[in-house]
Amino acid sequence: MKNNIAIKVDDLTVAYNYKPVLWDIDLEIPEGVLMAIVGPNGAGKSTLIKSILGILNPIAGSVSIYGKSYEKQRALVAYVPQKGSVDWDFPTTALDVVMMGTYGSLGWIKRPGQKEKKLALEALEKVGMLPFKNRQISQLSGGQQQRIFLARALVQDASIYFMDEPFQGVDATTEIAIINILKELRKANKTVIVVHHDLQTVPEYFDWVTFLNVKKIATGPVKDIFNDDNLTKTYGINYKVSIQE
Amino acid sequence: MDITEYIKLVFTDYTLRTITLGTAILGAVTGMLGSFAVLRKQSLLGDAISHAALPGIAIAFLITGAKDSNILLLGALVSGLIGTFWIRGIISKTHLKSDTALGLILSLFFGFGMLLLTFIQKQPNANQAGLDKYLFGQAATLVESDVWLMSIVTGACLLVLLLFWKEFKILLFDADYTKTLGFNTKFIDILITTFIVLAIVLGLQTVGVVLMSAMLLAPAAAARQWTNSLGIMVFLAATFGAFSGVFGTAISASQNNLSTGPVIVIVAGVFVLISFIFSPSRGLLFKQIRFIKNRRDLQLHKTLSFMYHIAETHENISHPHAIKILNNFQGFTKGTLQKLVRKNYVKLEGSMWSLTTEGFKTASNLYNQQTENNE
């Protein structure tokens, strides 16, 4: 069923000042999976998505999206950065941030209009943030800010979504709201890649998983490879996790 | 000199008109661009750029031997740009943090500039005097062509701002995300930075190397207090900057021997001070007022809900209590109870206080409202 390869990473190596952060990563991610990237702090999880997205320059290796270079396929890809990567005291509103998701398709100079506003409002509705559309973003809770970021990516109407720790610092309500949206995306045959920290929820939320610790440890369906062996290899300690059958 | 006389003078006196117009335009353009510097957390970049411009002025003079302000400013522009790109180079190529890079370039370039200035002053060239005016600026030297130059740069800056508004905004907020959308963030970044350098260089003659960064930061910091919209912030910063120029010039012109640059900077500082105190949403004054009001309201709520809890244990909600009993529990003041009486939530009979029906209702709603608000 899952024959189409959405993302292919070949020999990807990234280093900050001589020290390799990612070492010779080969990865094939099939279309339509909801994939978690797990690994300890400093394993290069964020670096991996940032390198695929061209935010960081790898020293070696290549990335292709549906067989073509990322630059050509940019319109198919949406990105949800870590919430903490921006200054939420920036003078703007929730709606305005979500509208930024339309800037890519607008291109240079052209301003967003009614059509873009409508798309943004729809996305806000999807994440349950419509009542807060005119709220200054600093007055939103952490969970609400995360939903705004998610809505901004949804506006892009992409085929592939990269999310950097979308569950970090959000409450249970938001976590459930977000995971439901991710599952809906998967239903629509979108590919979703999530940097994830909570190992307990991996089997429940995801169907595909990549273990990463500078090198790729394993990648594949959660039911096949999410086991103590791989966890121990990745985290370096004898990790026991009880997988709910 | 009274105000009407001064205003008349602004429109009739050539020098005064030129200086007023020049400082106003300068204030507007630095205020606008300063908003971007402040929001990018690059506030000190302006300081580094203006100090880095000094050796350029000296070298331009050494090469041409003339004090044509346009040529000197061209030198300032070149060395300001070199300083800026070195700062960026240091940040991206080494482990050093941006504050270190800024401090390093600022002091090295300024030191080199001062060295050149003292060297120039030892030269047997009668033309050399007056270069040091670039340290603190001298608005009186502004001529019409300077104002024209400022207007042209301001016009170009406005045009670029309007064209690339969306790109500037998204880059300021989330640079990585901007990159993934396919925008050339380096180009946007260089565009903003180049205009910041241009604006600073234009201000050197008027405000000087040492104080120039205040022109960039003060109007923007003041403007941020009043609004949560980027567009309004930029507009307000430009307005504050322009008024700082106009008022500063007026004060220095009506008080003899007051140097214009520092006065403008101080006026801009007054804008900041007023904004910090009086801004309705972020200002210290209203914050304090809200705090006191909230505390009072909560005290009333606390008393009311306490009486509500007691009332719940009695059949009659208006079961009266002596103040002593109430005091024993939470130390209520008579004042709070009296306020509740005025609101008709509590009534006093003899020396006994009791909840009214209205007070009972309000108290029970109090809890419901609070839980609703929390959601």
Properties at a glance:
heterodimer, A: 245 residues, alpha/beta, six-stranded mixed sheet, four-stranded antiparallel sheet, 10 strands, globular, B: 375 residues, mainly alpha, ABC transporter involved in vitamin B12 uptake, BtuC, Arc Repressor Mutant, subunit A, 2 domains, 18 helices, 76% helix, elongated, disordered C terminus
Helix and strand arrangement:
The complex is a heterodimer of chains A (245) and B (375).
Chain A: E1 5-16, E2 19-30, E3 34-38, H1 45-52, E4 60-65, E5 68-69, H2 70-73, E6 77-80, H3 94-99, H4 103-106, H5 114-126, H6 142-155, E7 160-164, H7 172-187, E8 191-195, H8 202-205, E9 208-213, E10 215-221, H9 222-225, H10 228-235
Parallel strand pairs in A: 3-8, 3-9, 6-7, 7-8
Antiparallel strand pairs in A: 1-2, 1-4, 4-5, 9-10
Helix pairs in contact in A: 5-6
Chain B: H1 3-12, H2 14-39, H3 43-52, H4 54-64, H5 69-93, H6 98-121, H7 133-136, H8 144-163, H9 165-173, H10 175-180, H11 185-204, H12 212-224, H13 230-254, H14 260-278, H15 284-312, E1 321-322, H16 323-330, H17 334-342, E2 346-349, E3 352-355, H18 357-374
Helix pairs in contact in B: 1-2, 2-3, 2-8, 2-11, 2-12, 2-13, 3-5, 3-6, 3-12, 4-5, 4-6, 5-6, 5-11, 8-11, 12-13, 12-14, 13-14, 15-17, 15-18
Description:
The complex is a heterodimer of chains A (245) and B (375). By secondary structure, chain A is α/β, with parallel strands linked by helices. Chain A has ten helices and ten strands. Chain A starts with a strand and ends in a 10-residue tail after the last helix. Chain B has 375 residues and is mainly α. Chain B has two domains: 277 residues, ABC transporter involved in vitamin B12 uptake, BtuC; 80 residues, Arc Repressor Mutant, subunit A, CATH 1.10.10. A three-stranded antiparallel β-sheet of chain B has the order 1-3-2. In chain B, helix 5 packs antiparallel against helix 6 and helix 15 packs across helix 17. The interface between A and B is medium-sized, with 31 and 28 residues.
